[in-house]
Amino acid sequence: MSEQSTTSGHLVRAVNVSKSFGENEVLKGVDMTVDRREVVCLLGPSGSGKTTFLRLINQMETLTGGRIWVGDELIGFVERNGRLHVRKDKDIARQRSRIGMVFQRFNLFPHMTALENVMEAPVHVKRMQRAKARQEALELLEQVGLSDRARYYPAQLSGGQQQRVAIARALAMRPELMLFDEPTSALDPELVGEVLGVMRSLAKEGTTMIVVTHEVGFAREVADRVVFMDGGVVVEEGSPDEVLLRPREARTRTFLSRVK
Ligand code: ADP
């Protein structure tokens, strides 16, 4: 079987993934799968490698070891004439366009309105006609509850509104997979709910999502599966009830007693 076809039906499959920054081994052999339409919440103490794992999937970092497939493609490599080659920038851009990512900080383009932020990638990456991109962007802003803010600049929006624009912008490329990296951790507490609400509705619609979060309540309610990481390894995983209510591992129990 070629390496390209070994996702075994999963949308994401990570096998023995390792990542070091110099001497610092941040991920130490992580195996993980995510199925289509599945919501996986990634929990764990700060520094356990969760963000790095998302960044590897999105090719913002390169693997030290192991393999990650997204769909039928091996991340970071391309098969030509039966041999694996390191991907070129244009291959990476194409692979990334299948994945939407929402960061802790709502890094919107400050000189563009909410609408222009959402239109940007479809117009410049997908070469979509402006009128069509505009129509789709307006629909996405409606979906995240911001129809009336289309013409506002990021500085004129609250943190929660900016983060909802960031979600709409990520969705604009119609990604197969959405990655969320602690999307509510930079928000004032009263703004967390509106962002989690949008994520909850995306999950209900069957969006495939990997969510790094400290929001245990959200994970319990929305996740199909919870993965607990610590020290660069997956400590345990299972249904939200299994991991969050009846954790098997002492490290999981310690973490949960701190965040709950
Ligand atoms: P988490 O998301 O679980 O808090 P991270 O993946 O952000 O964990 O970080 C794991 C470790 O990797 C930390 O020790 C962090 O300092 C280190 N790290 C992350 N990115 C880099 C980088 N670009 N260069 C060096 N070290 C990094």
Structural account:
It is found in: Cell membrane. By secondary structure, the chain is of the alpha/beta class. The chain contains 9 helices and 12 strands. A hairpin with a 2-residue loop joins strand 11 (225-230) and strand 12. The strands form 3 sheets. It has a 6-stranded mixed β-sheet with strand order 8-9-10-3-11-12, with helices on both faces. Strands 2-1-4-5 form a 4-stranded antiparallel β-sheet, covered by helices on one side. Helix 3 crosses helix 4 (130-143) and helix 4 (130-143) packs across helix 5. It has helices spanning 50-57, 89-96, 114-124, 130-143, 159-171, 189-204, 216-222, 240-245, 250-259; strands at 12-21, 24-34, 39-43, 65-70, 73-74, 77-80, 83-86, 99-102, 177-181, 209-212, 225-230, 233-238. Bound molecules: adenosine-5'-diphosphate.
Radius of gyration: 19 Å
Q: DSSP strand (E) fraction?
A: 25-35%
Spell out which ligands are present.
adenosine-5'-diphosphate
- SS-derived structural category: alpha/beta
What spatial form do the alpha-carbon principal axes imply?
Answer: globular
What profile does the largest beta sheet have? 6 strands, mixed
Strand order of the largest sheet: 8-9-10-3-11-12
Count of β-strands: 12
Intertermini distance:
45 Å
Quaternary structure classification: single chain
Topology record:
Blueprint: E1 12-21, E2 24-34, E3 39-43, H1 50-57, E4 65-70, E5 73-74, E6 77-80, E7 83-86, H2 89-96, E8 99-102, H3 114-124, H4 130-143, H5 159-171, E9 177-181, H6 189-204, E10 209-212, H7 216-222, E11 225-230, E12 233-238, H8 240-245, H9 250-259
The structure holds adenosine-5'-diphosphate (ADP).
